[in-house]
User: What shape does this take?
Amino acid sequence: MKKLIVSVVLMCMALFLSGCTAEFAGDWIGSGTDSQGNEFTFAAKVTAMGDDNYRVLILDTLDSTKDPMHIMDGILKDGLYEYTADKGLYSGGGTLSGDEFSGFYKGPVDGTYTMYRVK
Assistant: This one.
């Protein structure tokens, strides 16, 4: 019985800690403008990969069955996310502030964007 209680406590602690480190994870919607003046909208699915690493899948809609338009892998530290995307074709970063993320990217085309968490 004692081993069961210890196991349950450890499992609860792991779940609590994983929730704390996954502050960026979830579904997002956003819009932006590229360096050529084109405006765009998108959806994003953010997944915590462990050790402050996050993967962001950029989609046309949250329920899309298409392949992601972009895949961003990066690290979130103190609210700042730095990433590379599309196998190094793009790099960028941004700031997470609660349910809002403001970012930029540089590559063949540069741009800025803002996205908001879907609740």
